[in-house]
Specification:
The chain is of the alpha+beta class and 433 residues long. Helix content is 19%, strand content 33%. It is elongated, with a radius of gyration of 41 Å.
């Protein structure tokens, strides 16, 4: 090798950080003697630096197509279609691609991708593999086709690899990918039990329950989970939209089991809080059942209360005694008392204004007043004494032990006590003997 050629070779091997563009073409074997000194001189400027722009203008790769699947820094173009091209680029530049390269692709698996191109028949999806995944538009669901657009992210399920498909391309389905992903989401939410989904009751299974479509996935809802109480008309909810909570997976049916009942139960606390804003309103509900004690009524979608026989109007009471009241019948009532989320007392009768015994208590009972009360309950720490209806005070053990044995006091015993303090804010009265 001549000294001139050696010097020129050293100049060409300058610092790669000075390059403005790097092109990685398919490997070509070049014999050392085929590089002409005269040709090489054309690519050096007066300062002895290699002129990449001049070199690119004559490079055969100029006419090649850029590999769009390669993730490269801005200004870098890669032409190689080799499967190792991304890894090689990363190694040369110390560049980490934002999207990991898919080296192999498997039938049945779901991949995140981006729509590269779309027409009336085919959609090509870039999933980071050396080939695009091709989706037949004619086989996609109408709702999915409407949402497809170039550069939009999608999930695609591989139906056949390039070696298995007749066309020789990777074939996939966006509809199947979306559905499988939604099934996975619903399955994951079963363990949480706190996520509700909008569903559509599409059909009734005789003697078994309902099919509920949730995000395009057919789920199973047993009749017992279709409401807080047993449904009166089982066909009445077909075609209705309702919120359901995934609760389990039925291996026998191969479907996810959902519950409208669980959603309603979760709504009870907020509904209770809302109705307590005004308990005087007349409301309407539906009878769910009756006993000799009264009638059970469902109202506000998720609440159930009972109207005692003593709170029924005369005509309803008469019909109740003759067993004419039927489940599903509409009935009017007012809320008498909310005892708890699971116990609501209803009435059809007008109620007298409720008197709070604590109103004006400090005017009625002056400290230190002596009052003859009645022992209501005896605890280890003292005795609760009823001073008047609705007012009970505590006679602490420390106020008793030096005077009388607490074991000698029985519920119902009259006992004379002195009021030492009244706290209206906490509704507590303190006593001593």
């Amino acid at each position: 090798m001549s000294d001139t050629t050696k010097t020129k070779r050293q100049r060409m091997g300058g610092d790669p950080s000075n390059a403005t563009k790097v092109q990685i073409a398919e490997p070509e074997v070049v014999k050392e003697e085929s590089i002409s000194d005269d040709v090489t001189d054309d690519f050096f400027n007066d300062k002895g630096e290699f002129d990449w722009e001049s070199y690119e203008s004559t490079c055969p790769s100029k006419s090649r197509n850029v590999n769009s699947k390669i993730k490269a820094p801005r200004g870098i173009r890669v032409f190689s279609k080799e499967p190792y091209a991304q890894d090689l680029l990363n190694a040369i530049l110390g560049f980490e691609a934002e999207t990991s390269v898919v080296h192999s692709i498997n039938t049945g698996e779901i991949y995140d991708g981006t729509i590269y191109s779309i027409n009336n028949e085919w959609v090509s999806v870039d999933v980071g593999y050396r080939q695009s995944v091709y989706v037949n538009m004619l086989k996609e669901e109408a709702s999915v086709r409407q949402e497809l657009a170039p550069n939009s992210p999608v999930k695609v399920q591989v139906l056949a690899t390039e070696t298995a498909s007749v066309q020789g391309y990777v074939l996939g389905s966006i509809s199947a990918g979306v559905k499988t992903a939604r099934v996975a989401e619903l399955m994951e939410s079963i363990d949480k039990g706190t996520e509700a989904y909008a569903g559509l009751v599409t059909e009734m299974i005789p003697g078994g329950g309902y099919i509920v479509a949730v995000n395009g996935v057919d789920c199973f809802m047993p009749g017992s989970l279709a409401g807080i109480n047993k449904l009166v008309d089982f066909e009445s909810i077909i075609g209705e939209k309702m919120y359901v909570v995934p609760v389990s997976f039925s291996s026998s049916r191969g479907t996810i089991v959902v519950s409208h009942r669980e959603y309603l139960k979760a709504m009870i606390p907020n509904t209770i809080e809302k109705i307590q804003e005004d308990l005087t309103l007349e409301r309407t509900g539906n009878v769910t059942g009756s006993t000799k004690y009264g009638i059970f009524v469902e109202f506000e979608g998720c609440l159930t209360g009972m109207i005692h026989v003593n709170d029924l109007t005369a005509d309803v009471l008469k019909r109740h005694k003759s067993r004419e009241i039927q489940p599903g019948e509409e009935i009017n009532f007012k809320i008498k008392e909310v005892v708890s989320n699971n116990k609501i007392i209803l009435t059809q009768l007008d109620q007298a204004p409720k008197v709070d015994a604590w109103d004006g208590i400090e005017d009625r009972i002056k400290v230190p007043a002596e009052i003859v009360g009645v022992a209501k309950s005896i605890k280890d720490y003292g005795v609760f004494v009823e001073l008047e209806k609705g007012i009970t005070g505590l006679l602490h053990i420390s106020e008793i032990q030096d005077v009388i044995d607490i074991k000698t006091i029985k519920p119902g015993d009259k006992i004379t006590v002195q009021v030492t303090r009244i706290d209206s804010s906490t509704r507590k009265v303190f006593l001593k003997l």
